[in-house]
Structure formats: structure tokens, C-alpha cells
Amino acid sequence: MERIEGYSSQPNSSFTPGSPIYGYGVAKVLDSGHPDLKAGDLVWGTTYWEEYSRIPAPEGLIKIHHTDVPLSYYTGILGMPGLTAYVGFYEICSPKKGEHVFISAAAGAVGQLVGQFAKLMGCYVVGSAGSKEKVDLLKNKLGFDEAFNYKEEADLNASFKRYFPEGIDIYFENVGGKMLDAVLLNMRAHGRIAACGMISQYNLDHAEGVTNLMHLVYKRIRLHGFSVSDHYHLHPKFMQFMLPYIRQGKIVYVEDIVEGLESGPRALVGLFKGLNFGKQVVDISA
Amino acid sequence: MERIEGYSSQPNSSFTPGSPIYGYGVAKVLDSGHPDLKAGDLVWGTTYWEEYSRIPAPEGLIKIHHTDVPLSYYTGILGMPGLTAYVGFYEICSPKKGEHVFISAAAGAVGQLVGQFAKLMGCYVVGSAGSKEKVDLLKNKLGFDEAFNYKEEADLNASFKRYFPEGIDIYFENVGGKMLDAVLLNMRAHGRIAACGMISQYNLDHAEGVTNLMHLVYKRIRLHGFSVSDHYHLHPKFMQFMLPYIRQGKIVYVEDIVEGLESGPRALVGLFKGLNFGKQVVDISA
């Protein structure tokens, strides 16, 4: 049983108002009855949207050992979204040098990392996002080869024909619906799709029908849904991989930090409108 | 350059009227300029819908060495559909003993074999088909645990809840559309779907939209389109596996053989109406 304080990031994608208000957060232990945790330890993992919490089962929390990077990174690039990007790209997409990679919601916490991983591997990388500012971020700061604002594309199929004249090898799927349908038309043989989320569909009464699934057969595509929750055993390996890139500035990470617990609900709703700019974090200890 | 005569099975799924009339057939070589083939050899592979053919590139044909089984089997259980079932089940589905397996179009050339492979592995196996006769075949002759006529099910989701109260681990997909949508609701975590075909969608002007793809993420499902054309190197291993089961009568195979090339078009159209009973074969040498 711990009392902790600290950051709380957005809850995971299955959050619905009225359910217990979990989130991925960073916290400091104030008091602990658990042998592995003592007062002053920093931890990250599933916490609550509150300034002080009692955590009855702290075994799931992960202790923070490296504090030369911003603590908020443990809600993002070094935490759940970072591991999601790492697992999704390296384990699920089976990437190869030079392949053509498309990432939707590319300016988000996961997408921005997947794009940079793909660039490190020598892939051609295009991302979609929902504003000019995000598109500029992808192209000018995160090193994507191309990026486009999906809201300004009247015909997504034509967009893909333009950005991927030879087709897409890997699609990192965060969006679903019409985007997936257009991607399917433009996949290459033996392509892979890592389905990380389908944010365009979560709040619809009736999900959009995807009509081009026959291309999975024609092109022998693997479409693989995954959840980081199955892969936490890879976190130590991931840290060894990730920390040097951060320290050397070879991987850039963009956060959108709002102050105070009271800013949390608006930040959450903003995610579904695309108002966040990078990983949305709520700093509740400022 | 060979002149060959013999069986011709249905063409593959990408056949459209007006295109070159290829099919998977069994044939006897009448004359050959190729060093690996001589008059009298029996072969199977891509042939044409005609009684005598010139095959300009016979390298793709596979020589028949075992004639103690019906020659028509090389259009089916020992040929392309058999290898499709073998690859699709053992390579794509990653099956484990005791898993719960659903097969659509289960009385077809591929489905009936997948079901028997799954039973050999100790799985619980349910198939769908489009007539009472086919359902009886699946349950009484092919050893499926359960089978149902999808045309008599008003609510496929309810059907799956009935046949798979604990959910589906493996779906061998031959149908697409509404069937896939209902299956997705009933898959278990870490399930696998081998997409072999989507016959319900081929002749629609607009494919049915599949709306439950978010379950791929929720349940971390792998949906993998495949084509036997990528796996012909496994055919020798497949023959070693398959022939003993056939000779010992441990795997049963049902064919629907019509006589004469003139019966071909009607048999082809019948496939899309589900009129065939087992693997559709056209015997053009009778």
C-alpha cells in the first residue's frame, strides 16, 4: 500500500467516462509496506487521476532508475507508449531496411517514435496527422520523408498513390476506418500491418465498414493487432536500446504538457479532436 | 512445349470470364521438348480448360509419381487445395492441441481438409456450409464436432455464442463479409485468422463493410492473408505427410466430378451458388 504523487498521463484507449479513472503515470512513493518499494522511490505504471493515491497492488509499477532524462518521459517515450512503438515496429512489423512505411496519427506519442525507428533502419517513412503544425513537426523535426494532413485530402487512395507510387510495405495503424480501407488498396505483396489502435472508430455508434479486406488475401498481408500489455518483459531490453538514443539526441520526443489535474478532462477530450501536439501529459504535481 | 490431355479443375479464385482460361488440372504428356518431361508422364499444375493443350513453360508443372490414389486427387487433396489447407493450417494458423477452430465453406476442397487436420491435432472443430447435405457430410463423414447451415442462421453472432461459448482460437476464413464480422466478435485473445479466400465478396459490386476490426486490437489477433503460390517448396514435405493418411483412410476426401468440358461453365457458376458437393472437378478425358 503506497501513497504516491506525481505525473499522470492520459489513460489508455479503453478509458470510458464513469469507469475507474486509471492512467499511466509517474509518481513518487511517500510511504510503502511493500518490500521492493521505499519512500522516495520514483515509479511509473498504472496510477490514478489524483494527486495522492493508495495503490493496493504496486507489483505492476516499474521503478525509475534513470533520472537524467525528464521524468515525464516515463509516461511516454520510456514508458508504455515507447514500449508500444518498440514492440509494434520491431516485433510486429518485421521491418527490413529500405521498406516503405506509413504511420497514421504519426504525431502522437507512439507514431512519432515508430517513424524515427523506421528512419534509423533506413526506411522511407510517411506519416499522416490532423493539422499543418503536426505535418511540419513530422517533416522538419522528426525526420519523416513526407507527411500529410488527412483532413485536407479529398481522396486518400490518391494520396497514397502520390506518396507511395510503389506501394506500402508496413502500415502502423492507429486510426482504422477509411484510412485502413485506403491503405489496403495500396499495400504491396507480403506487407504487414501492426494494428495498435483505431482511434477514429472509438466514439462512433457504428464503426465504419472496411471493404477492401480481400486485399489481405490478394497480397498475402499480415494484419496483427497487438497490445503492449503482452510485452512488458521486453522493457529492460527496450531501455538499453532507447536511453542512448535519447541521451545522444538521435531520437526526438515531443510532449504536450498541461498543468494541474483540473486540465485533465479537457486534455483527454482534446485527444479525440486531435488538439494535442505530441504526447499529451497532465502534470499534477507542479 | 507439351501437348497434354486430362482433368481440369476449377480455375483459381482470380478467374474472371474473358481472361485466359487457366485451371488447375491433371494431364498426360503426349509429346515434350523439355528434358524433364517425356510422353506418358502424368503431371498436375496450371493447365487450360481444353482437351489438348500446348504448355509453353512446363517448368511449373509437377510430375505425378504416385498413381495408387485417384488421379483427380492431384487437382485437390494432393494438389493446390491440399497444399493450401496444409500451409494455411499448419504454417499460418499456428495451431495448438485442444484449440477451438472454426472453418467457413467447410465442405469445400480446402475446408474439409483443414477440419480433418484440426481433428487430427485434437482440436474442437466447427464448420459452416450452405446446405443440409453439406452439414451432414461435415458431421457424419468428415468428423467435425459440429456444423451449421449459415443460410438458416438468422444471427451469426448468436450461432457462434452457441457453438463457441468460450470463443474461437482459430478461424480459417474462406468467406469474408458478414461471417468475418461475426467471427471477430467471438474470437479469443491471441486468436489467429488465416484468410484463404472471401468467396462471398468476389461477385459483389461493393464489398460488405467489416465493422468489428477493433477486436483485432482488443484481442491481439493475427489476421493473415496467404496464397499457396508462396509455398510450393513445401509440396514434397506435404506429400510425405498426406499420402499415408489417404492410404490408411484416416483422411477422407469428397469430390464432385462432372463429365465433359461442356459441363465446366455450369460447374464454375455453381461454385458461387454453393451447388458443388466437395471439391468441384471437371473430367474432360472421360
TrEMBL record, chains A, B:
- Tell me what this protein is called: 2-alkenal reductase (NADP(+)-dependent)-like
Q: Name one GO molecular function term.
A: 2-alkenal reductase [NAD(P)H] activity
Which superkingdom? Eukaryota
Which intervals hold domain Oxidoreductase N-terminal? 12-62
Describe the location of the Alcohol dehydrogenase-like C-terminal domain by residue ranges. Answer: 109-241
Upper lineage? Eukaryota, Viridiplantae, Streptophyta, Embryophyta, Tracheophyta
Q: Quote the Gene3D superfamilies the UniProt record gives.
A: Medium-chain alcohol dehydrogenases, catalytic domain, NAD(P)-binding Rossmann-like Domain
Per UniProt, the keywords (alphabetical) are: Oxidoreductase
